[in-house]
Write a structure and sequence with these properties.
Elements lengths: L6 H24 L6 H14 L3 E10 L2 E3 L15 E10 L2 E10 L4 H17 L6 H14 L3 E2 L5 E5 L2 E8 L15 E4 L2 E3 L5 E3 L5 E4 L8 H14 L4 E2 L8 H10 L3 E3 L3 E3 L5 E3 L2 E6 L2 E4 L3
Antiparallel strand pairs: 1-3, 2-14, 3-4, 5-9, 6-7, 6-8, 8-16, 9-15, 10-14, 11-12, 11-13, 16-17
Helix pairs in contact: 1-2, 3-4, 5-6
């Protein structure tokens, strides 16, 4: 595939990446035993706005067997313990996106953290115009298995579209025979996950992140207020319950969900209840390599 963006659009991707890299590193510094999840998430989301971007999705704080899609609820009082903490953060500038993740290990499993980080480095080394996505996945799998762990195979990297957090192509976290070829100019997120479990995740029951499913109208006042904010501010990007300005936000969301106007992103958990680490960067593919926008 090949996308032809204007230089101005690539600049917005780069600006988003620059803001994001700074916020990710500062947020990671805040993660310590006893610190509140909500404080870190809201600090990072505010800092993104201060630096001139917008959060592309709620700051994900996934703990231990949680791999993705966990974010603090409105009055969340959870604090960090001796956990494996995955921070996954996104920024957009006028809908042009950057996506990054890092694991902060408070659990004493440094080598599991290193496995996904080194897998990402190996993956980035393979990227250039013409590379098959299966080759990227093979590099990830080889490094993680070399550490004695498994890649999470049903989570993948992805393309980043305008106001679209996940587009084609998928970037697998293992060797696959059918892949697609990347072209110069493609903007993709690569995100290896490593686990000491079997390597698959499933949806749990908790849901704090949602996105618009379809344009519609709804009579209930709070649901209508929420929907107005969603369509104007978040459009098709994911949002958190705690981002809604309306009173009775949880009730409003339940109504929107029941009418299939928004859909949820359940928390994804490792099937064996084992630890998961993650590292992610966004890149622009070039003729002879790639430009990492979130370094
Ligand atoms: Mn991400
Ligand atoms: Mn991603």
């Amino acid at each position: 595939m090949s996308v032809d963006l204007t230089s101005e659009q690539y600049e917005k991707h780069r600006e988003a990446g620059e803001i994001l890299a700074e916020v990710r590193d500062e947020a990671a510094e805040m993660v310590e035993v006893g610190v509140s999840h909500l404080e870190v998430a809201e600090w990072a989301e505010d800092r993104i706005r201060e630096l001139g971007g917008k959060p592309a999705f709620p700051v994900n704080i996934s703990i231990d067997e949680e791999a993705a899609h966990a974010t603090p609820s409105i009055d969340d009082d959870s604090t960090f313990g001796e956990d494996m903490v995955n921070l996954d953060i996104g920024v957009h500038v006028d809908g042009w996106l950057a996506d990054t993740a890092i694991t902060v290990d408070l659990s004493g499993n440094e080598d599991l953290k290193d496995a996904s980080a080194e897998a990402l480095d190996a993956a980035l080394d393979t990227v250039e115009a013409g590379v098959q996505t299966g080759e990227i996945g093979a590099a990830i799998e080889e490094v993680i298995e070399g550490y004695g762990y498994n890649p999470v195979v049903n989570l993948t990297g992805h393309g980043l579209g305008h106001w679209e957090q996940h587009t084609t192509p998928n970037i697998p976290n293992r060797a696959v025979s059918q892949g697609v070829e990347l072209a110069a100019g493609d903007v993709v997120a690569i995100e290896p996950f490593a686990t000491d479990g079997g390597g698959k995740v499933s949806e749990g029951s908790e849901e704090e992140i949602f996105a618009l499913e379809r344009e519609a109208s709804i009579r209930n006042r709070q649901a209508r207020q929420a929907l107005d904010q969603i369509t104007e501010e978040f459009r098709t990007l994911p949002f958190a319950t705690r981002w809604l300005d309306t009173s009775r936000a949880e009730m409003a969301l339940r109504r929107l969900k029941r009418n299939d106007i928004v859909h949820g992103y359940p928390v994804l958990k490792e099937d064996d209840g084992c630890l998961v680490s993650q590292k992610e960067h966004t890149v622009i593919v070039t003729e002879d390599g790639c430009e990492v926008t979130t370094r």
